[in-house]
């Protein structure tokens, strides 16, 4: 009996040890947090795409993941603070508007890795974010724990413009744009120049709307430009731009989506979509988190462009048979020239 009791005790100790080890393994999972911009995680655009990339990485690498939605810009810093308080290892922030908050918090929490989409932040010596260049920052001013995931929107905007210029019947194309920030401006400038490269006398219209979450204003703006002859509407700016796409759909005109393949995410307008100007945000986020897993992530800027496949036009879907081969050939010509570096989009920072 005494031997059996001793054996039982040994077995219990072994089981406890195994359970403890399992618990320890679970606790070593990296914690990845995503802070959205005000569009929210279901914006059918880049917040949603970023979360898709996080989820894919979580599935493959066993990360613990969570998102927090920002309802207004004043939420940015407190949402980052929440993840920091909860001991997250990596915090991903979405969008140019979060640039200053991300830089300030990256300085406050130097042990946390940060990645920001669409914002290349280079604080200077004695700035609030980086008061000591030698100690806390790289020589070029970039924070040591921040990776900027950037995209050449002007390139894919240019291709969207080539397509629009080839498809317009009225000779007028337009953009319903959100806040006038660099990523949006790159899209607009690329689109306008691409349309003119395709059709020299094309007329281009654009309106910047100071919000990414105002589809009603976007629709109203789209309707106004349709009234001025626009028959290809490019919606550039989250849910605000989505309103412009809806305006085109309701008038049985052509539309071009943005950031993701909106044929798959915005069913209400898919019949009108001739393509979408994609930024593969999900791929960029996934690749960054893959590098984190392998210990190979670095601070600085990673740029996605036509050459490396980080941006590009979505499939033509229902419009594939309606787009003339000559127009498709011009899109391919422009794509090849952008890859080769022999064609400029006209965007100047």
Written account of the structure:
This protein is α/β, with parallel strands linked by helices and 349 residues long. It folds into 2 domains: 30-151 and 280-311, Response regulator (Rossmann fold, 3-Layer(aba) Sandwich); 153-278 and 316-340, 3-Layer(aba) Sandwich (Rossmann fold). It is 45% helix and 18% strand. It contains 12 helices and 12 strands. The chain has helices at residues 2-27, 46-61, 75-85, 99-108, 133-136, 153-167, 182-198, 215-227, 238-250, 262-265, 281-293, 325-340; strands at 31-35, 64-68, 90-94, 113-117, 146-151, 172-177, 203-208, 232-236, 254-259, 273-279, 300-304, 311-313. The strands form 2 sheets. It has a 6-stranded parallel sheet, sandwiched between helices. The longest helix is centred in the first third of the chain and has 26 residues, at 2-27. The radius of gyration is 24 Å and the shape is globular. It starts with a helix and ends in a 9-residue tail after the last helix.
Descriptive tags:
6-stranded mixed sheet; 349 residues; 6-stranded parallel sheet; 45% helix; alpha/beta; Rossmann fold; 12 helices
Number of domains: 2
Biggest sheet layout: 6 strands, parallel
Strand coverage percent: 15-25%
The run of helices and strands is HEHEHEHEHEHEHEHEHEHEHEEH
Question: What class, by secondary structure content?
Answer: alpha/beta
Brief description of this entry?
It is built from twelve helices and twelve strands. By secondary structure, it is of the alpha/beta class.
Ordered list of secondary-structure elements with their pairings:
Layout: H1 2-27, E1 31-35, H2 46-61, E2 64-68, H3 75-85, E3 90-94, H4 99-108, E4 113-117, H5 133-136, E5 146-151, H6 153-167, E6 172-177, H7 182-198, E7 203-208, H8 215-227, E8 232-236, H9 238-250, E9 254-259, H10 262-265, E10 273-279, H11 281-293, E11 300-304, E12 311-313, H12 325-340
Helix pairs in contact: 2-11, 3-4, 6-7, 6-12, 8-9
């Amino acid at each position: 009996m005494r031997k059996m009791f001793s054996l039982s005790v040994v077995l219990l100790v072994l089981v406890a040890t195994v359970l403890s080890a399992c618990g320890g393994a679970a606790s070593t999972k990296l914690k990845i947090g995503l802070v959205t911009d005000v569009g929210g995680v279901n914006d059918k655009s880049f917040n949603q795409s970023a979360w898709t990339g996080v989820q894919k990485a979580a599935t493959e690498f066993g990360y613990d993941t969570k998102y927090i939605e920002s309802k207004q810009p004043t939420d940015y810093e407190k949402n980052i603070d929440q993840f920091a308080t909860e001991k997250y290892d990596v915090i991903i922030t979405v969008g140019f508007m979060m640039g200053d908050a991300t830089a300030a918090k990256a300085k406050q929490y130097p042990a946390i890795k940060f990645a920001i989409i669409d914002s290349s932040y280079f604080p200077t010596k004695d700035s609030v974010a980086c008061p000591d260049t030698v100690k806390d920052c790289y020589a070029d001013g970039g924070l040591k724990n921040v990776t900027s995931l950037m995209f050449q929107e002007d390139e894919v905007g240019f291709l969207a413009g080539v397509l629009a210029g080839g498809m317009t019947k009225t000779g007028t194309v337009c953009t319903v744009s959100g806040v006038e920030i660099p990523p949006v401006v790159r899209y607009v400038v690329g689109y306008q120049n691409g349309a003119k490269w395709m059709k020299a006398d094309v007329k281009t219209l654009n309106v910047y709307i100071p919000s990414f979450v105002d589809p009603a204003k976007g629709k109203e703006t789209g309707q106004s430009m349709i009234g001025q002859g626009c028959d290809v509407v490019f919606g550039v700016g989250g849910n605000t731009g989505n309103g412009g796409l809806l305006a085109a759909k309701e008038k049985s005109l052509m539309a071009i989506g943005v950031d993701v393949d909106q044929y798959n995410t915005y069913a209400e307008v898919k019949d009108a979509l001739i393509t979408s100007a994609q930024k593969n945000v999900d791929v960029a986020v996934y690749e960054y988190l893959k590098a984190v897993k392998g210990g190979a992530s670095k601070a600085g800027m990673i740029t996605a462009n036509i050459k490396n496949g980080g941006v590009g036009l979505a499939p033509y879907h229902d419009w594939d048979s309606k787009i003339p081969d000559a127009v498709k050939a011009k899109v391919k010509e422009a794509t090849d020239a952008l890859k080769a570096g022999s064609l400029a989009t006209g965007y100047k920072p």
